[in-house]
Write a structure and sequence with these properties.
Length: about 180
Amino acid sequence: MSHLSLFFPSWYSAACSLLILQRTNLATIEEVEGDVCELESKLDKLVKLCIGMIDAGKAYNAANKQFVSGIRELAQQSAKDEVIESSLTKFAESLQEMINYHTILFDQAQRSIKTQLQTFVKDDLRKFKEAKKQFDKVSEEKEAALIKNAQAPRNKQHEVEEATNILTATRKCFRHIVLDYVLQ
């Protein structure tokens, strides 16, 4: 038996241990929240870079199409020389095939990268932020219920019961919200 147990009841040391555990968990939650904010920032930047890449690719394809048109015009102009006309036509067809593949690439990038990332940032991270708001609100309500319970005059039984019932209900709600928040 320790010397502290002479001065403090066993429930006090259990409450202190629980408080330390809660503070450790809150520190971990705050670290994860920071990581999520950093992730959101980096994903936003990646989406903007992807949009820039897609726009630049579309401009590149438009310039290539004009170049192919110029080559085709030159091939028609050179109809008198079959070798030049044939070579220019084949070159234009090869460039057109490359343009088609680039168009597919940029469409796929838009669909698979940009759209998916934007959906993730807007929907999934929004749900996380909403869960955080709920967590913060219920945490404050739990703190208020704890204070009200601690300050309830012990000689007024109905106020003690009311404060205890509010605290119990708030704790149950808090546990559910914490699980939702941690799972987000």
